[in-house]
Amino acid sequence: MKPEVSVIMPVYNMESYLEEAVDSILGQSFENFELIVVDDASTDRSWDVLCTYFDSRLVCLRNIENIGNYPSRNKGMRVAKGKYICVMDADDIAFPDRIEKQFEYMERHPGVLACGSQFICIGMDNTYPKPLKNCDIQLQLLKDNRFLHPSLFIRTTVLKELGGYDERYRYSSDYDLACRLALKGEIVNMPDVLMQYRIHKTQISSVYRLEQKKYAREIRQKYQLEMIRRFKSLENDMPESEDMRHPVIGEIIFYCHCGKLLNSRFWTKIAEQLAYKVLGYVKSLSIEQQQFVMNEMKSGLSYLQRNGFILDILKLFNEQNIEIKHNAEIAFWKSEIQSYLAWYDGNLPILYNTPCPSPEQKIVGNNLLQSAILTWTELHQKPKYLKDLDVAGNSFLGKRVLDVGCGPIPSATCFEQAEIYGVDPLISNYEKAGFPLCFYPNVHFMASGGEEIPIEDNFFDVILSVNAIDHVDNLEKVAKELQRVAKPDCRFLMHVHYHEATIPEPIEINDSVFLSLFGWVKGLKVKKRSRFSFTSIAKEGEEFVLWSNI
């Protein structure tokens, strides 16, 4: 008689648990099944254990070489004779009525493609409830796998139509299969506890956790994109893979589209709640971790803003991004102080390709910190700024010079007898970080962003910036404000680093972007471009560009 159910169980080095798993299937209350066991070239006694069984329902296949878990499942699928395929692992235990209950459910519900069940962990009393309804499973697959894979019971025709397991996802193909099933039709989890799941150190989820996470990330992104495509309004553009780098952003984008398409505040509220949850999580991280997460979310947040979704929370994300950026800059300058002191004392022979000072070169100030910073300014910063800006130190005698994003060591200090102004929103923070601004008494420091400069119109003769314009919070506003405070014949010099956006340097600049913002500068042109800038070398694909009208 042809079996109604084909149980497929791959085995690799499971001699410790195999007998329990096989016995739990052979002892089922439902009898019309075949158990296909695929030994994946085990190196322990797994095959010997299988050879002790004499049961006509047991079909044993043996791979000559190890091909992997999911290829072995596909091999079992190809020889399966049953109407249904029952998934089983060699380290788990099925309750005696598992097959009977799942078979009867699928027979009563011909529209269901596959069903899973609830489970308990071996050695533990608690259960881990899985969602029951198809709609809940579809939504939760946006986050991760919502099935206990070895509890799946699938129509054979459906599994074969899907091509079985996608073997590219070596350690996460079960998640991919669940997503493809969800996209194809109705899938459910039964409320019954039908499986005992074993957790141990040699299972795939333990041994290959990093690879599994990598594959799961790709699968999740693919599923999210397909779900968004199905619910997207025609007026909105489709997100790209880059927009979905952070998994929760993919969920948020999906719920935003659902809210818009269905005109339902319910879905939009879910998106907002997720966004607030992520924002709270980001705030709990270290500066380095915050930068990593916000970089992952950057493109997705831009997509949401571009398509007009949840703008209130986007404002909060932007504020958080600015806070992270500022914290990263302050942390950088704090570490710089220690480097300057070590360099000045000779404990750091070279700093940014500048050798430590000889006794004759050292400037002696009121204390060690002042001595170190002033010596560093003289031997490194001044020649660097003059080289980057391609001008002489006496170029702006008697001129009013604005240094945009001046930092704690303004680039304008390299100019003799000039009236120097430095604008930076973190001025007070630099002092708290250990940079006494009194070291530069000839500089008028303004604790303000370039977006709002507390100076009258047509004030400055010279506006300059060295590798700082990409740090600002809003470059468009900065450009308009600089136009306001610049004299009509203002001299303009900006040394700009073209690079991909990061948290401390969030602005991506290229020639067209720069000209669109600063086209009001008379005679502005690219004076030089290079991957080299004094002691710095830009990464591949990046460059330093000097914009000037001198």
Descriptive labels:
single chain; 550 residues; alpha/beta; Spore Coat Polysaccharide Biosynthesis Protein SpsA, Chain A; eight-stranded mixed sheet; seven-stranded mixed sheet; 17 helices
3D architecture notes:
- This protein is of the alpha/beta class and 550 residues long.
- Helix content is 41%, strand content 19%.
- The protein has three domains: 5-204, Spore Coat Polysaccharide Biosynthesis Protein SpsA, Chain A (Alpha-Beta Complex); 211-320, no CATH class; 357-548, Rossmann fold (3-Layer(aba) Sandwich).
- The protein has helices spanning 18-26, 46-50, 69-79, 98-108, 134-140, 156-161, 173-184, 204-207, 209-231, 247-261, 265-283, 287-306, 311-345, 368-389, 427-433, 475-485, 511-518; strands at residues 5-11, 33-39, 58-62, 84-87, 93-94, 112-121, 153-155, 186-197, 350-351, 354-355, 400-404, 419-423, 443-446, 460-466, 486-498, 525-530, 532-533, 536-537, 543-548.
- Helix 10 (247-261) runs antiparallel to helix 11, helix 10 (247-261) runs parallel beside helix 12 (287-306) and helix 13 (311-345) packs across helix 14.
- The mean pLDDT is 89.
- GO terms for molecular function: S-adenosylmethionine-dependent methyltransferase activity.
- This is Glycosyltransferase.
User: How many whole angstroms does the radius of gyration measure?
Assistant: 32 Å
Shape: elongated
Strand order of the largest sheet: 3-2-1-4-7-6-8-5
Distance between the terminal alpha carbons, to the nearest Å?
Answer: 92 Å
Content of β-strand: 15-25%
The CATH superfamily of the largest domain appears as Spore Coat Polysaccharide Biosynthesis Protein SpsA, Chain A
Number of domains: 3
What's the CATH class of the largest domain, please?
Alpha Beta
Poorly predicted spans: none
> Largest beta sheet, briefly?
8 strands, mixed
What average pLDDT do the residues reach?
A: 89
Proper CATH architecture of the largest domain: Alpha-Beta Complex
How many strands in all? 19
Helix share bin: 40-55%
